[in-house]
Amino acid sequence: MTLLERLKIETRAAHDRIEAAMDLDRRIATRDRYRELLIRFYGFHRAWESAAAPKAPDRAFFERRCKTELLVNDLKALGLKSDEIIRLPQCRPLMPLPAPEAVLGSMYVVEGSTLGGAIIAHEVERRLGITAETGCAYFRSYGRDIAVMWKSFGAMLLEASSPGTDDIIVGSAQKTFDVMHDWLCEAP
Fold first, then answer.
1. 159 occurs within a structural domain
2. What's the domain count of the chain?
3. What are the mean pLDDT values of the chain's consecutive 10-residue runs (188 residues total)?
4. What is residue 95's predicted lDDT score, i.e. its pLDDT?
5. 145 exposure class (CB count in 10 Å sphere: 0-12, 13-18, 19+)
6. What's the CA dihedral at 105, 15, 1, 153 to 10 degrees?
7. Structural domain for 84, as ranges
8. What is the CATH number of the domain that holds 40?
9. Does the residue 164 lie in any domain?
10. Does any domain span residue 167?
11. Which N-terminal stretch is annotated as signal sequence (predicted)?
12. Which one of 60, 66, 99, 184 has the lowest number of neighbouring Cβ atoms within 10 Å?
């Protein structure tokens, strides 16, 4: 079994849990609720990117996948000012990311949520009329390159895979799902 197959199998329950708890119909029912959802994603990504960047196995590879600035642009398009955004709450506590392998496991969750973002973007545009230019850049983050970005991330994961690293990667992915769930689904 490859590391990607193992990740998919061993994180399936956590993935399903967060997907069910997100209640996207409610969270994208109005412009205000959608903005609140983006605020929660901003709080997660801002904290996570700061914690993960120093330990990322390939800094340039990691930075091409950072999404905080997309969220800032979306929040500005939806009426928040820069000084309001910088004061928004950040996700705490984050999972420990003690090694590059832990960052890769965590990235698996974040990159996977980007795949689902394309579906969310379609619904946001259909329901609210918000496009990538008017407040939905985060969910459209990779645009037409989404499959290429996922494939290159998968290749990096498989390259990092070894009997000594796979448990760290899978464990970090599971913890990331838990933290993301608590922050996005249970926080006010």
1. yes
2. 1
3. 96 94 92 97 97 96 97 98 97 89 97 91 96 97 94 96 96 96 79
4. 82
5. exposed
6. -40
7. 3-183
8. 1.20.910.10
9. yes
10. yes
11. none
12. 60
**Cβ–Cβ under 8 Å, residues 76 and 122:** no
Joined tokens for residue 105? 């496991």
- Alpha carbon distances (Å) from 2 to 6, 7, 8, 107, 183: 6, 9, 10, 17, 30
Six-digit token string for 52: 């993960």
Distances (CA, A) of 8 to 35, 88, 152: 30, 32, 17
The set of residues, in sequence order, having a beta carbon less than 8 Å from that of 74 and lying 6+ positions away, is 38, 135, 136, 137, 138
Q: What is the per-residue pLDDT for 102?
A: 97
What pLDDT is recorded for position 93?
83
**Cβ contact 37:127 at 8 Å:** no
